[in-house]
Amino acid sequence: MLSVCIITKNEEKHIGLCLQKLQWADEIILVDSGSNDNTVEIAKSYGAKIFTRPFDNFSKQKNYCIKQATKQWILLVDADEFIEKKLAQEIQEVITNQNTYRAFWVTRQVRWLGKPLRFGGLQNEALIRLIKNGYGYYQRDVHEEMIVDGKVGHLTHSMLHDTTPTMNDYIRKHRHYLILDLRMRLKTGKIPSLAKIWLWPSLLFVRKYIFQLGFLDGLNGFKYQLACVHFVWAKYKLTRKINLKRKNKN
Questions:
Q1: Which tens digit of pLDDT belongs to each residue from 201-227?
Q2: What is the DSSP annotation of 108-159?
Q3: 158: CB partners within 8 A, 6+ apart
Q4: CATH code of the domain made up of 2-163
Q5: What is the number of H-type helices and E-type strands within the chain?
Q6: How far is 33 from 51, CA to CA, in rounded Å?
Q7: Which of 15, 149, 198, 201 lies 20 to 30 angstroms, CA to CA, from 225?
Q8: Phi and psi at residue 118, to the nearest 5°
Q9: 114-166 per-position pLDDT tens digit
Q10: Percent of the chain surpassing pLDDT 90
């Protein structure tokens, strides 16, 4: 009755525990984009159906994964997300007993550099992750968004998101997302102003760290908010630099 869909590349650190907590599902679909570690071998040992597809963007990769699912409901999970027992039980009850909703929001408990983050805008972080097969798809190249044909409900229990356990993991992920975000922004040809490059990240930090209580997460929360601000600053700065260079050439 339930297919789990996961996309991967070099996720051997997480994929074993992720799949171990999903053995109750009827089917696990994994789309890999060329891992050169043990991701695929580990996934096979947990009974996952493996598909290989070159990565172009998150939406296309996840939509391809969704198309491989054969069950009535689909749970979309990242390799560094873990479905604990209470959420698993709730999902099983929901897909068995209800006919009103076509999808469900799922909240996430975030852990960054090995420590939990509970504030700074993460208090109510939720994503549409449970969908009825045929009623949802993703759009946008990066920071993808789920579009649902029908009503969307809310699940009570949360999944655990163990994002970037080490600083090396963060740097690797930061570079990957920055490249994808730049590709999307460069298509527009827009040149961010200097005010946007310097002012917007500062305002973002104030909003998340102070008004959304990020300071309550202590030193780790401070580091997290600085990392988020640096990402925003870097993407605007590089977009301006590259598009100005293109404009001057023309």
A1: 999 999 999 999 999 999 999 999 999
A2: EEEEETTEEE--TT-TT-EEEEEEETTSEEEESSSS-EEEESS-EEE-SS-E
A3: 87, 106, 107, 108, 109
A4: 3.90.550.10
A5: 7, 12
A6: 9
A7: 15
A8: -120, -5
A9: 899 999 988 878 999 999 999 999 998 777 899 999 999 999 999 999 988 78
A10: 71
Report the length, in residues, of the chain: 250
Return the H-helix or E-strand segment holding 186: helix 167-186
The mean predicted confidence, pLDDT, of the chain is 91
Domain extent listing, the chain: 2-163, 167-249
Calpha distance 60→67 (Å, rounded): 11
Give the contacts of 124 (CB within 8 A, at least 6 positions apart). Answer: 107
As given in the structure block, the two tokens for residue 67 are: 């198309």
Give the pLDDT mean for 103-107: 97
Enter the pTM of the model.
0.87
Q: What type of residue sits at position 203?
A: L
Q: Please spell the DSSP secondary structure of 21-72, one letter per residue.
A: TTTTSSEEEEEES---SSHHHHHHHTTPEEEE---S-HHHHHHHHHHH--SS
Q: How much is the pLDDT for 248?
A: 73
DSSP character for 80?
T
